[in-house]
Amino acid sequence: MLQTVDYDLSWEEYSRRLGVNLQRLRNARGLSQERVAFDAGLSRLQYQRLERGGFKNDSPSNPTAKTLIALAEILGVTVNELLPQPWPDLHAK
């Protein structure tokens, strides 16, 4: 499936949108942050950072492929369903 790209979307905003998706999916399944974090091999703080898109005055979250796959499995979705659409333009500028 061809993904759309938003050339004006920043990585910071994309990270926030990913966090919204994580929180929405987790809540829909009645899971706690602690449960999802443990099952994904993350600390609660690491998972909270993902849901928030990063912490204030810090760089935006940037999960590994392994983390994204684990979270998708735990939340019962595909990685493509987990990732917000459209994608940001990540070409070097």
From TrEMBL:
InterPro entries the record matches: Cro/C1-type_HTH, Lambda_DNA-bd_dom_sf
Segments forming domain HTH cro/C1-type: 22-82
Pfam families: HTH_3 (PF01381)
CDD domains from the UniProt entry: HTH_XRE (cd00093)
Name the record gives this protein: Helix-turn-helix domain-containing protein
